[in-house]
Specification:
- With about 290 residues, the protein is mainly α.
- The protein is built from 9 helices and 2 strands, in the order αααββαααααα.
- The chain has a two-stranded antiparallel ribbon with strand order 1-2.
- The protein is extended.
Length: about 290
Amino acid sequence: MPISRREFIKISAAGAVGFGVASAIEIPILENQISNERDQITALNNQVSTLQNQLSTTVQEQEAFLTLGVNEQKEVEAIVETIIPSDQNGLGAKEAGVIFFIDHQLAGDYGNNARMYMKGPFVLSGQTGPITVGGITYPQGSPVEPFTGPTYQYNLTLREFWRTGLLALEAYSNSVYGKNFEDLTTDQRTQILTDLYNNKPTSFNDIVPKDFFNELIFMTYSGFMMDPVYGGNNGMVGWILTGFTGANMGDSFNQGRNVLDLMVADKPTRFPPHSLGEFQKIMGEL
């Protein structure tokens, strides 16, 4: 039966009322869904931002390295942290950025033995005789050199010396503790380094373990104590720990106080440390 115009209007009006009621119920639900989705999007954006910052930091750190590979970086950082740890007295070699000092030195003249005599014969220091060098036989062997650093003139650049030594140290760590050096406890790391000092490893990639130990100590303390311009001693933490003033001789960094006044003062004045970069800046402003 055909629907009259009046009935159609009634049905339409009822439908409109029903739609309005349904919409009134559904709108808050949709608003809640939209709000939840917005929260989720915000949380995802925050996670993406965090990951981007972490990636940026990682990229910057990797770009800062010139020589050491990723695995070498982990090992060297663990080594320097073990030699000079942070404690109640102050920050250590890790915080001082000693690893960057070592990396940059190995990438430059030092790592390439630019100013070192590199011709043979290559004779092990302290080797018991008899040995023959250059056609001459020495019945008592070779003397023990008194200086620090490698006491054996290796047929290697110092960069190769480090690469070979780090591989040998990692292998020795795994043979003793079943882990890489950087994964050991502090006590275990200390024991490994002590073994190197005592020449305990019987196989060390044709390097005398104590020679590599001496090089590790020498470069760690150099990076901890040298001027920050060379890539280590960040924040001058090495100087702060030892009380060294660096480039501060008392005439450029002490608020215009006369050096003579400081010398005859009733109480001693402890000068804060300042780097060569700061000194050069001040001299340029005078």
